[in-house]
């Protein structure tokens, strides 16, 4: 629960800060930042989700056997391994900055890439200290360090970009200052972890060999298992990285001017906060069920594994579908509320379909990792990256940034199909009944009718001189509340969720009381 709450806070911060940042630097400044951001996203996934998990597993095994010195040896040799990995990443990104920026089609990005390369040097202390404390069942140090890292980073981004632009610096300089937030945030997290470690007075690296007997096995586990878990966590970042490599370059080589291409890419990048917020809403609930799947699997209760997997999938589909369809309906007022105008709303509407597929992929990956199948999700996600790159090359010259949105949705759809195939092969059953989908679409249709009715009033007010951004904010927020209420009312009335299943949703007890009062369609 501690780690889940910390992850929720950091993901919300990561999604929300982009909105004021875009308002400060505009679409071109947002393009500049988003081009380089995936490097930080990779470093964050490595130091938060991948390597700490594997280190904590190995430390926990030592602690369970009463081998405290062995736990320290795991931490010490992991530090050396990850120090080497971090240095390799740093050198590759720093030295390759000119080549990467040229590949992206914008050589001015090279200094920003060099700045972000420094974040890989913090990989070893962040991963090892988080993993060590987690392995000893001490989750607070990791949670506090994650929140501190993201908070310091967000403050650095917003303050530096505001100050640099106020002093007349270029948008590229503002982007460089914003990316420096990854360094200040990482250093803040390291300081927090060091203070927690010092308070335990364990002397973590005192008198410990960094190359103990059997260190090769530890390094192998970090390389294989850590990388597999990291890849699943990096799904959206890897897709962003592909877009950074060829969206702008493809636009400029097919007749779009440089400034116009930067603006178009910046508008397209507005989709990132949408997909992050939508995905967090669904997965923060569905993934809390994964530990139940793991427990049932370890106890050999296959029927319970299927039941909990089905529950996680139901909730993921339910919330992912509702969030996606609702956002598509109110995209114009939401886009205007957050980013000052409605530019690119059609592109963002298509891009928002990614929310639904991302929710399913993250839930499927969590279930498969929970039952020990960590390599399949990683393999199928890696297989999707070249597909995304190739489809970008095919569609962007024809459809512009709409092609990038379509390629993202297509890639995520293919990855989802692969994971569905794996789940059906493992469990040998249809996880969701056709009647569930029928009720889902009926609820979605009802929500759409109501929201489109609201939009008629929204358009009427705008044509009669209402303030565009204030009116957009009002209708976007009202649309979220009304749309969610209508969808849940219709779906609960269909009776496809039991009281136990509803209890996993926010305000589950209130919804159960509502469900009981819905009349004859209620089914126990």
Automatic annotation (TrEMBL):
Main localisation: membrane
Transmembrane segments: 37-55, 76-97, 109-129, 178-198, 218-242, 274-299, 311-332, 344-367, 374-391, 397-420, 440-461, 473-492
Keyword Aminoacyl-tRNA synthetase: no
GO CC aspect terms: plasma membrane
Pfam family membership, one: Polysacc_synt
Compartment list: Cell membrane
Topological category with respect to the lipid bilayer: Multi-pass membrane protein
Entry keyword set: Cell membrane, Membrane, Transmembrane, Transmembrane helix
Protein name (database record): Polysaccharide biosynthesis protein
């Amino acid at each position: 629960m501690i780690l889940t709450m910390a992850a929720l806070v950091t993901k919300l911060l990561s999604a929300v800060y982009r909105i004021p940042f875009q308002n400060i630097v505009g679409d071109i400044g947002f393009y500049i930042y988003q081009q380089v951001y995936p490097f930080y996203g990779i470093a964050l996934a490595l130091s938060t989700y991948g390597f700490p998990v594997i280190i904590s597993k190995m430390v926990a095994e030592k602690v369970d056997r009463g081998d405290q010195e062995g736990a320290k040896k795991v931490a010490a040799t992991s530090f050396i391994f990850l120090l080497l990995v971090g240095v390799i990443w740093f050198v590759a990104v720093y030295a390759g900055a000119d080549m990467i920026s040229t590949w992206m089609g914008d050589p001015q990005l090279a200094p920003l890439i060099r700045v972000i390369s420094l974040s890989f040097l913090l990989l070893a202390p962040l991963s090892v200290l988080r993993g060590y404390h987690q392995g000893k069942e001490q989750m607070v140090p990791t949670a506090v360090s994650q929140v501190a890292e993201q908070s310091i980073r967000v403050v650095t981004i917003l303050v530096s970009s505001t100050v640099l632009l106020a002093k007349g610096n270029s948008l590229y300089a503002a982007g460089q200052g914003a990316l420096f937030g990854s360094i200040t945030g990482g250093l803040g997290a390291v300081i927090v972890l060091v203070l927690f470690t010092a308070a335990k007075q364990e002397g973590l690296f005192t008198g410990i060999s960094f190359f103990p007997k059997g260190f090769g096995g530890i390094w192998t586990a970090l390389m294989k298992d850590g990388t597999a878990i990291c890849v699943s966590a990096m799904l959206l970042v890897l897709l962003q990285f592909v877009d950074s490599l060829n969206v702008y370059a493809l636009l400029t080589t097919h007749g779009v001017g440089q400034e116009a291409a930067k603006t178009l890419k910046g508008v397209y990048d507005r989709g990132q906060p949408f997909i992050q917020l939508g995905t967090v809403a669904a997965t923060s609930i569905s993934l809390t069920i994964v530990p139940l799947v793991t427990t049932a699997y370890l106890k050999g209760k296959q029927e319970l594994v299927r039941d909990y997997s089905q529950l996680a999938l139901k909730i993921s589909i339910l919330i992912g579908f509702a969030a996606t369809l609702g956002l598509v309906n109110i995209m114009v007022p939401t886009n205007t509320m957050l980013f000052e105008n409605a530019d690119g709303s059609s592109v963002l509407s298509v891009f928002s379909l990614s929310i639904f597929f991302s929710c399913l992929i993250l839930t499927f990956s969590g279930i498969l990792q929970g039952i020990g199948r960590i390599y399949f999700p990683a393999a199928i996600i890696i297989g999707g990256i070249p597909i995304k790159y190739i489809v970008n090359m095919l569609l962007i010259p024809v459809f512009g940034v709409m092609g990038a949105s379509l390629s993202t949705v297509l890639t995520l759809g293919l990855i989802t199909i692969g994971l569905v195939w794996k789940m059906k092969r493992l469990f040998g059953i249809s996880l969701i009944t056709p009647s569930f989908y029928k009720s889902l679409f009926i609820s979605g249709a009802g929500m759409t009718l109501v929201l489109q009715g609201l939009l008629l009033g929204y358009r009427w007010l705008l044509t009669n001189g209402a303030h565009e951004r204030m009116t957009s904010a009002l209708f976007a927020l009202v649309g979220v509340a009304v749309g969610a209420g209508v969808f849940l009312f219709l779906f609960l009335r269909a009776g496809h969720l039991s009281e136990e299943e509803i209890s996993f949703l926010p305000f589950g007890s209130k919804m159960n009381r509502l469900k009981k009062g819905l009349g004859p369609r209620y089914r126990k």
